[in-house]
Amino acid sequence: MLRRKTLQILSNLPLAIGEMFTVASLMALGTFIDQGEAPEFYFQKYPEDHPVFGFFTWRWVLALGFDHIWSFLHSAEAIRKQEFSESLPRASIQDVGTILMGAGYEVFLKGPSLYAFKGLAGRLAPVGVHIAMILIMAGGTLSATGSFRGSVTVPQGLNFVVGDVLAPNGFLSSPTEAFNTEIHVNRFYMDYYESGEVSQFHTDLSLLDMDGKEVMRKTISVNDPLRYGGITIYQTDWSISALQILKDNEGPYNLAMAPLQINGDKKLFGTFLPVGDINSPDVKGISMLARDLQSIVLYDKEGKFAGVRRPNSKLPINIDGSEIVIVDAIGSSGLDLKTDPGVPLVYAGFGALMITTCISYLSHSQIWALQDGTTVIVGGKSNRGKMEFPEEMNLLLEKVPEIVESTLSG
Amino acid sequence: MIFSTLEHILTHISFSVVSIVIAIRLITLLVNEIVVLYDSSEKGMIVTFFCITGLLVTRWIFSGHLPLSDLYESIIFLSWGFSIFHIVPVFGFKKLKNYLSTIIAPSIIFTQGFATSGLLTEMHESAILVPALQSHWLMMHVSMMVLGYAALLCGSFQFIQQLDRWSYRIISLGFLFLTIGILSGAVWANEAWGSYWNWDPKETWAFITWTIFAIYLHTRKKKKWEGVNSSIVASIGFLIIWICYFGINLLGIGLHSYGSFTSN
Asked: Which of A180, A193, A281, B234 maximizes the CB count within 10 A of its CB?
């Protein structure tokens, strides 16, 4: 039952949004076009021989009712039905209008009717909220139909071309000139906490254009991407590509490292240096494991722990008769590349949504009044401050002067 | 070492004080208003607020990052949010004091007790931040979300208790916080991973929560629907928030696994 109800509400939303958009435009228009004047006023202001904007004449104004967008309530019953209503015997509606103007209201007076409002922002903001949501949805649609995405793991020192990595995400995606850029991974390195956990990982990138000229150089890290030509490069992952070692002072040899499966988020990489006859079916060797680029753990050909070495320490280790020096641990940078034409729209929508939601909490009050003989009937409502509004109204209405018989007849 | 002991002491003080406050509230409900007791229970809530604030600050200094990176810390933050939404109205709306304390104090107890219970003992130690959480967005996004949830929970709960006007205000505030929280999360995700929305379970349920409360705010507009319908929506919203906040964590999957029971 709830689902049907939700569907009902949601299905009315597009219509509601459309209506709100129209209402917003009309309200804005109502601020520019003077309201409630006699037709002659409009004949003068929007004449046929000099139309505003080339076409806008009094005929438009009167035909579309732009002279009375602000609705005056013409009956006493309608006014009494408002959330707040009061009758002021022996009062003049002009006085009410003056008091309201003094309190910051925009007042419109037409004959015996009065309409006043305060806090236009609070009235328009909800419309802004819906417009912001439309922006977000439009941006999202553009993202879904026009983006490119791609991932690549690049060992330190290597490079790739942007266009080779990016794949289109929708039918509107079309590559740009920037796709020919070549990206060099100059250096990949990591920072660690004292406990040994990874704190951050960085990649120093160079971007070269088709002529081989460096157009950009930046070191990226997680939460700090690189932006160029509509393409954004994010640091999202890392890996260890190879260990560079010296064996018995020969080398350096590059041993490719492979990721090993362990539980949880931790990573483990391993490689293997065969000892003895490489072609024998059960070849044994020295195993080297690394959790990060900081230290390598070595095991002998029986699988027994042999020692730990830090790359670049130049400290040799003797295992099974061979002297091993870990020269370097070469990391790989995990990069995600993306183009997204919808992002500016979506961000604009986000900003608008946050601001308009804030503004919509501002109070907006409306007041109607009608001069009925010597009594003025006042009614009003407010979107916020349900308790303060009647208090404010009562305070204001107390200021309206009471008209004593003798002045009326004079 | 000093910090963790201090933390421990503060947690236990706030837990004990809130228990005493509840006991006092119950006594005053059963026996006619004993003003002195009532005032001391009010002071008790203020003491609790300062204890929780102290707890958060201690944790912040000790760990070097804002105390919002895992489930334990966010629960403490939630309790803090509850205690704020208690203190603020107390100074503004004297006549509502009575109802608010009886509701909010138990809520704080529940969350604090749960946090300090055996279920979460492993998480008491402050953990270091993984690279993905090292961002200024962390402060804004998570604090907005937790404060938003605290406000919306308070508001919906009060709505069920028929505190119409006041709960409408708190829910409106909570809705604003939730909006900012969700949007800042999206922008952060885009900066970190290049995608502002992934239909991650937690994101999806936060969006559902947002939609439910948007519906609530719209039901308040129509005169006929005000009252019963909006209470229904608010109650649903109450449930949905708990699903979003806790239920998703039980699943332990997705981008928000930092807050799950299974991640260590």
From this structure: B234
A179 pLDDT higher than 70: yes
Distance from the Cα of A241 to chain B's closest Cα (Å) equals: 20
Query: What is the torsional sign of CA A69, A72, A74, A76?
Result: positive
Read off the pTM. Answer: 0.70
Same domain, B4 and B123: yes
Q: Are B134 and A199 in contact (CB under 8 A)?
A: yes
Range of the domain at B243: 133-259
Q: Which amino acid is at B89?
A: P
CB-CB under 8 Å, A350 with B187 = yes
Contacts of B137 in chain A (CB under 8 A): 223
Question: Are residue B123 and residue B86 in the same domain, yes or no?
Answer: yes
pLDDT digits (tens, 9 = 90+) for A82-96: 778 888 888 888 888
ipTM here: 0.70
Compare all CA atoms of chain A with the CA of B178 and give the residue at the minimum distance.
Answer: A354
Q: By the 8 A CB rule, do A342 and A146 touch?
A: yes
Choosing from B127, B158, B193, the residue where a domain stops is: B127
**Total domains present in chain B:** 2
| B173 and B141 co-located in one domain | yes
pLDDT value at B225 more than 80: no
Mark which residues 93-132 of A lie under 8 Å from B by CB.
none
Q: Tens digit of pLDDT for each residue in B34-69?
A: 666 666 767 777 888 888 888 888 888 877 777 777
Closest-CA distance of chain A to residue B34, Å: 30
C-alpha neighbours within 13 Å on the C-beta side of residue B126: 23
Residue A158 carries which side chain, given as an amino acid letter?
A: L
Residue at B264 is within a domain: no
Q: How far apart are CA B131 and CA A203, in angstroms?
A: 14
- Residue at B150 is within a domain: yes
In a domain? residue B176: yes
